[in-house]
Amino acid sequence: MQDLNDLIPVDSGWELTYGSGITDDGKKIIGWGLINGQTHAFLLTLSPALMINNLINLVLNSNLPKGIENSLIVKLEHAEDSINAGDISGACDQLTAFINEVNAQAGKKLTLDQANQLISGANQIKTALGCQ
Question: Which string of b and e fits 43-52 if b means at least 16 CB within 10 Å?
């Protein structure tokens, strides 16, 4: 679960109150919210960079030892840097390295549920980027 308001700019004027659907790739969310005191439907489209930031927050909330936490976050930051530089292949490689490390920690420093959430998030980003 995540507060949808954390996914939009603070100064957007929106207060997202109800998410009613999400696409399989996790890139688009629909629901209801308030803007200017009135209820309206919304379509929230997540960018890969925002999806990476959400995944970083998930890592930070996983109560990992600092070394593992830092290693995972660095991989995600490098993926974001690659996206910003137009190097999609490099971003895909970093996300694959992230998934491999999460798999290595599954059932050890990460619960299986935490590992599955992190891997799912990384795979959604890879799908959004068109990684092979």
Answer: ebebebebbb
Q: Report the alpha-carbon distance of residue 16 to residue 123 in Å, rounded.
A: 26
Q: Specify the pTM.
A: 0.77
Q: Which residues pair with 32 in a beta bridge?
A: 18, 41
- Cα–Cα distance measured from residue 18 to residue 33, given in angstroms and rounded to the nearest whole number: 6
Report yes or no: 77 and 97 within 8 Å, Cβ to Cβ: no
Euclidean distance between CA atoms 106 and 97, whole angstroms: 14
Element housing 96 (H / E): helix 88-105
Rg (CA), the chain: 16
Question: Which one-letter amino acid corresponds to residue 5?
Answer: N
For tokens 């290693």, name the residue: 71
Q: Write out residues in the chain with pLDDT < 50, as ranges.
A: none
Assess contact for 57 and 17: CB atoms under 8 A. no
